[in-house]
Amino acid sequence: MVKFEIRSHAITIAMLACLTATASAQNWPSFRGPGATGIGTGDPPVKWNVEERKNVKWVTPIPGLAHSSPIIWGDRVYLTTAVSKKKDPELHTGWLQGTGRSPKEAHPWKWKILCLHKATGEILWRKTAHTGVPKAKRHIKSSHANSTPATDGRHVVAFFGSEGLYCYDRSGKLLWSKDLGLLDAGPYNDLTLQWGFASSPIIHDGKVIIQCDTKKAGFWASFNVETGEELRRVARDEVSTWSTPTVHAGPGRTQVICNGYKHMAGYDLDTGAELWRLHGGGDVPVPTPFVAHNLIYITNGHGRRPLFVVRPDATGDLTPGEGDNKPAGLAWWSRKNGSYMPTPIVLGDHLYVGGDNGGLKVGDARSGKSIYIERISRDGATFSASPVAAADRLYFTSEDGHVYVVKAGPRFELLATNDMKEVCMATPAISDGQLFVRTRDRLYCLGR
Q: Is the pTM of this model over 0.90?
């Protein structure tokens, strides 16, 4: 009897370990998934049809206007939105020829977080985090809920910029909130314009980490995910940016990696000390840093379009000199192969840099050697969402709602073009062979 109980207990532990590992592989906990790599699991469909419901497992209407992406943990999907009393808030997409204006919105909005069942799309709960007139205006191409939430399975963190930082448990109970004051983001060369906040929170080792580069008094900060206690705040001499930070845990140090215009930098998570920095990037930084092949990839492509690949043990100023001079902390760099809006992606040995204009540059991820340059779309489509990938395929989503499926590898092959029939500004999520695509008014679960 004792032997049977011991054996049964061992089997139970083994089963739980297996289930935990499987669940972990299917999670998409923050913007662009684990470590912002954009790599999902399973075998998502190549083709689908939203009108005929081919390879559409479910579709759920989502109220409001938001560009935040869905996140996934276990059997739940979380996303945020901002709901106006006006039925159809102004939104413009495509190439806007440099306009920076904001819509007139002097009326109350409601900032919400929703939880959906992953298998059915049923809304399990919805909570209103804040109600009021927006404290800052948004760009006509932006929304009042751009920041993607984050979760560790027990906590769900939603960041609404000037409207606050909120932490819920998985049942929808509010655990804590923080008012961080006015987080006014806009172009550094015209302080009268307001474009909206967009940096997303991440959770690492019991800490919520945020990056708040605004018109003045920029900083990054960490909070205790259980209590909301502010653990650290590090000032950044920076103008407005719209990039999400990334955490990399390496031998001897864990660093917070922040994009920026005045400087890109890595900071020690525990002490806040600056480990390395870079100058010479483009203004209006949007792409998120990420790590692949034990290298840090970081780009910002408005004006200048550099791409830097940093060694994780780098220290000091890594700004390249004239000509081909390269500091030891840089694995390689390129003056012109970066991107403006979408975050690049590394899949296997290749680095894929998708441009907001539909261009695609593919190179060797470790050396930077160019492999091919192609165009995903030849009809003038504009791209704000970042690419994601699974099963040796990459998914590029245009603002006009087309999802282009490209085969991974050294030669360009467009496998399919799928029409979502709606504007798409949010980056998709991938989990367990399913692609979760947020359109202007809906959330789709696409699966075989």
A: yes
